[in-house]
């Protein structure tokens, strides 16, 4: 692909905005613009910006021009400096104005050539040792001469080797002069230029650290979080994938990144297998191999070559065994085993529910895609109503997907909630339970009750209107419920502990959850509204 001297740092691309095929994405990332309806309305309020490829190129070009202008150097030299200092404009300027000569030497942009062959009729290539005219020789800032054929092979090899082609030096072993982008544009073939500029663009995001790529497979968007001081780093990419900008895991509010890291590591950690072995097995008293009891009687037989027969309860050999029913104090091994069993049971409690909500969310995404692509059109035809007037069903499914995500992470939150704060734990479990109950109502309504209108020749208008009021009401109530739950958990439940100075009666008979979520309404007004949709 050709490049003019004025645009040496960018290649044209007919497909620069092309995303990967939808079929290559995982189910969790595959509901396209279905979630965009909510996100686009809120995007102006967000503290981040989703960048397309042309946006990234513009930022990159602006930084190059800024350095070139500030330092009064060519854009080729500015690019070499920015690549060396990982696209930090401030670092480049600091180093340059502190010691220009040292910076030039470090980066490899020499002011004067170390070899001068100007005026010579025939010049010997430093690689193939053939003689060439001046027009058949190319040099970088050091002046070492090489023929175009040797330069082409050298540059091609570097580009094929990977992203290291962004920073490589003159072929002369003792020379550190940088090979500039102008030479690559002049020498490299079209396919190698495209590969080089792909590395060039990606380095701006990956090394510059101002932006981050969306981690969704096939997505080519990046996100600029803008240096916001918020504690919530959840972002929604234009491809509809939601992730945490800070740790690049799936969006996980209301849980912080440290908790997510610990939880995911625990889920993968082989130490849980060790805990299971400790909790569910006992060591053979002779060979010490762990043995699991798989029959009813206490007569245990270790496998070959040990073949010891012993009692499961007391771990004594059956030869000469006596009754072991009497209690013995200070049985340290049994105490450890019980603790391990309690720990693994507790972990399984939270993990199973975390996994269950994860599965329910994936199923909801699948149901939403099916509803959007097939069933919504069918219902529109049955009712004789435009699809735009049935969007409340899509909004309900979108809310279910989001709430399943939040509810999933509340179980990781609960697992790490400290035991020495029993009041906070009890209150959290109450909030979590109420949220789960409300979500189940909404999910059941969208999943089961909506089915009654599909596959019919006609639907009584009054019956569908009643269903519409119910679904919209449940969607609204559940959305409010979860938004406030997220705020409360992100705040560590700090403002939601029982006050020692005010009684429930003093606050109008409302419990703290009601005060938190429905402070703008009286309890009677809320219960009246909620009863209409339940």
Automatic annotation (TrEMBL):
Reaction(s) this enzyme catalyzes, per UniProt: [E2 ubiquitin-conjugating enzyme]-S-ubiquitinyl-L-cysteine + [acceptor protein]-L-lysine = [E2 ubiquitin-conjugating enzyme]-L-cysteine + [acceptor protein]-N(6)-ubiquitinyl-L-lysine
Origin: domain of life: Eukaryota
Chain ranges passing through the membrane: none
Cofactor names: Zn(2+)
Biased composition (Acidic residues): 1-36
Pfam family, one: IBR_1
Keywords, ordered alphabetically: Metal-binding, Repeat, Transferase, Ubl conjugation pathway, Zinc, Zinc-finger
EC nos: 2.3.2.31
Entry-linked InterPro entries: E3_UB_ligase_RBR (IPR031127), IBR_dom (IPR002867), TRIAD_supradom (IPR044066), Znf_RING (IPR001841), Znf_RING/FYVE/PHD (IPR013083)
Pathway: Protein modification; protein ubiquitination
Span of domain RING-type: 121-328, 125-171
UniProt record similarity statement: Belongs to the RBR family. Ariadne subfamily.
Physiological role: Might act as an E3 ubiquitin-protein ligase, or as part of E3 complex, which accepts ubiquitin from specific E2 ubiquitin-conjugating enzymes and then transfers it to substrates.
Name assigned to this protein: RBR-type E3 ubiquitin transferase
Protein species of origin: Camelina sativa
Gene: LOC104788985
């Amino acid at each position: 692909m050709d490049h003019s001297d004025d645009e040496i740092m960018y290649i044209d691309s007919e497909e620069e905005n092309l995303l990967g095929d939808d079929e290559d994405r995982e189910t969790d990332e595959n509901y396209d613009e279905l979630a965009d309806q909510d996100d686009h309305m809120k995007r102006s309020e967000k503290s981040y910006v989703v960048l397309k490829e042309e946006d990234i190129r513009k930022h990159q070009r602006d930084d190059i021009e800024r350095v070139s202008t500030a330092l009064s150097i060519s854009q080729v030299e500015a690019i070499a400096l920015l690549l060396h200092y990982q696209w930090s404009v401030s670092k480049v300027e600091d180093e340059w104005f502190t010691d220009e000569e040292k910076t030039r030497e470090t980066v490899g942009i020499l002011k004067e050539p170390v070899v001068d062959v100007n005026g010579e009729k025939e010049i010997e290539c430093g690689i193939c040792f053939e003689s060439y005219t001046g027009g058949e020789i190319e040099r970088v800032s050091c002046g070492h001469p090489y023929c175009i054929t040797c330069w082409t092979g050298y540059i091609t090899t570097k580009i094929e080797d990977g992203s290291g082609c962004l920073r490589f030096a003159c072929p002369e072993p003792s020379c550190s002069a940088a090979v500039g982008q102008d030479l690559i544009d002049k020498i490299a073939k079209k396919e190698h230029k495209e590969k080089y500029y792909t590395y060039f663009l990606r380095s701006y995001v990956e090394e510059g650290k101002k932006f981050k790529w969306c981690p969704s497979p096939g997505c080519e968007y990046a996100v600029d979080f803008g240096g916001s001081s918020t504690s919530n780093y959840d972002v929604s990419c234009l491809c509809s994938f939601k992730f945490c900008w800070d740790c690049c895991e799936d969006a996980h509010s209301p849980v912080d990144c440290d908790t997510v890291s610990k939880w995911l590591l625990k889920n993968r950690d082989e130490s849980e297998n060790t805990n299971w072995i400790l909790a569910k097995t006992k060591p053979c008293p002779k060979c010490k191999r762990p043995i699991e009891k798989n029959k009813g009687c206490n007569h245990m037989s270790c496998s070959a070559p040990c073949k010891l027969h012993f009692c499961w309860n007391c771990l004594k050999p059956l030869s000469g065994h006596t009754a072991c029913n009497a209690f013995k104090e200070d049985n340290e091994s049994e105490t450890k085993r019980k603790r391990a069993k309690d720990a693994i049971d507790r972990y399984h409690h939270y993990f199973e529910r975390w996994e269950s909500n994860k599965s329910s969310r994936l199923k909801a995404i699948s149901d939403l895609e099916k509803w959007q692509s097939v069933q919504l059109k069918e219902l529109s035809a049955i009712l004789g109503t435009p699809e735009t007037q049935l969007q409340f069903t899509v909004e309900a499914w979108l809310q279910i997907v989001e709430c399943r995500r939040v509810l999933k992470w509340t179980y990781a939150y609960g697992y790490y909630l400290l035991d020495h704060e029993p009041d906070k734990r009890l209150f959290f479990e109450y909030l979590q339970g109420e949220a789960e109950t409300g979500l189940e109502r909404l999910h059941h309504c969208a999943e089961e009750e909506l089915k009654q209108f599909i596959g019919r020749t006609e639907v009584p208008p009054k019956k569908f209107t009643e269903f519409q009021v119910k679904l919209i009401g449940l969607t609204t109530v559940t959305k409010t419920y979860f938004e406030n739950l997220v705020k409360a958990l992100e705040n560590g439940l700090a403002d939601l502990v029982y006050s020692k100075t005010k009684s429930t009666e003093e606050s109008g008979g409302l419990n703290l959850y009601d005060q938190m979520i429905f402070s703008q309404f009286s309890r009677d007004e809320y219960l009246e509204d909620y009863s209409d949709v339940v």
